[in-house]
Amino acid sequence: MIKYPVVPENITVHLGRPKDNAEDITVAFTDYINNVAACEIYPTWPKEALKANIYAITTFALNRVYNEWYKSEGYNFDITSSPAYDQTYIKGHEVYENIGEIVKNVFNDYLYKEGQVSPIFAAYCDGRRLKCDGLKQWGTVELANSGKKALDICKTYYGASTKLMENAKTSSNLEGYPGFVLKVGTFGNPVYAVERDLERITKNYPYIDYKTTGKGIYTDKLKESVMRFQEIFNLKETGEVDKSTWYKIKYIYSSVKKLENLYSEGITIKDANFKYKDELKYGDTGIEVSYLNYFLNAISFVDNNIPNLKTNSVFNNNTRSMVRAFQKNYGLEETGIVDYKTFSKIGETYNTILTSYKDKYKDFVDDLYPNKFLSLGDSGEEVKRLQRYLLKICKYDKSIPGVKVNSKFDELTDSSIRKLQKDYNFEINGIVGPLLWKKIVELSERK
């Protein structure tokens, strides 16, 4: 799944320079573009010149929003009204009808480079009083009068590889801090984003030493690299990604890729290729749904407020009923849809089962997935439990390479896991997640 930038419904503007003690106002994105266009360009210019300038204005704003440039610096706004930093915005400024008509049709179109998905840093200046490397506003007039179309005008200034992304999606739910701490055991697109960013940051800061797994799984290796990042940038060395670490990673990533620069590396299609869905709902299928159903069934076993219903790899009516009951029981909005907030609460509740349970559930809890993906190099009590289950399987299935119960996920354990994955149609990657754990427990109970 490629995550393309989306256009925000609203944008928060700081009425001054970044550090000024000035008002922040939130306005509709289209109103913002109309206002800036009215401040920056003349309504009497040819239509194609106006259109080219509006592409630049829109793209510049989306670049700030998409990269969370100011939020990653600790501010609560998306962009400033200062032309020294961003674009001119004057609260209450008159807007123009003909510009408004163009904005209405192109507000969700933006400029990007071939092979990338991110809005470019569309720098521009008037081209007379001020000079810059980007678009020259008065130059667009001459080009339009010579017969050039808006996109060709933009290519004149931003390069022949400049393309126009048309009709980008509009959403109020933009990528950002997911609202919960990422730590060992967490999986999903937020982990993908951290993996991607740390791998690129490692090029500039080799001490961080991270290479992405491409799985979106928060492993012990990722924890170690996060701790090294936190050490370098004077953050509390927890190995977990809270809000402050998330935005510091975001800021450094944007800086090393020069995303605020006309000559940035940009975000490639590979960078934007995510594996998981941002929310799960009725009709969805796949491994995320299977994970969800596993956790819900475990919770429902000890919580009578959650119905214990039959589920599979489909988000069906039973899944939706369980999700609604969970949301009601834990003070969440009863949507029947699993967003990051709901999934985080489900994970938190599952962890509570693992750490504090009634004695009558002891045998049940011992069989539960430890809420931590296990793979080669891991060690500890969770690995020891896994090896005990594997040992029981090895006693009747001689095709399994074998196992030593030594609390270390060694090469022998890895070989046995991969053989089981092959035999039971799992992805052969040596990683033990909730579904494979469940299968191993079931196999260990065979006589």
What does this structure look like?
By secondary structure, the chain is mostly helical. It is built from 15 helices and nine strands. The strands form four sheets. It has a three-stranded mixed β-sheet with strand order 3-2-4. Strands 1-9 form a two-stranded parallel ribbon. A two-stranded antiparallel sheet has the order 5-8.
- Average pLDDT, rounded to a whole number, is 92
Count of β-strands: 9
Helix content: 40-55%
The proportion of residues in beta strands is 5-15%
Order of adjacent strands in the largest pleated sheet: 3-2-4
Q: Strand-and-helix sequence, N→C?
A: EEEHHEHEEEHHEEHHHHHHHHHH
Major sheet details: 3 strands, mixed
Structural class call reads: mainly alpha
Radius of gyration: 26 Å
Task: Provide a count of the helices.
Answer: 15
Quaternary organisation of the protein chains: single chain
Principal-axes shape call: elongated
Unreliable spans are: none
End-to-end gap: 43 Å
Give a short synopsis of this structure.
Helix 13 packs across helix 15 (434-444). This protein is mainly alpha-helical.
Task: Name the descriptors.
single chain; 447 residues; mainly alpha; 3-stranded mixed sheet; 15 helices; elongated
Blueprint of the fold:
Layout: E1 7-8, E2 10-14, E3 24-28, H1 29-40, H2 47-66, E4 79-80, H3 97-106, E5 110-113, E6 124-125, E7 135-136, H4 137-145, H5 150-158, E8 162-165, E9 170-171, H6 189-204, H7 220-232, H8 243-256, H9 287-302, H10 317-329, H11 340-355, H12 362-366, H13 381-394, H14 411-423, H15 434-444
Helix pairs in contact: 1-3, 2-3, 2-4, 2-5, 6-8, 9-11, 13-15
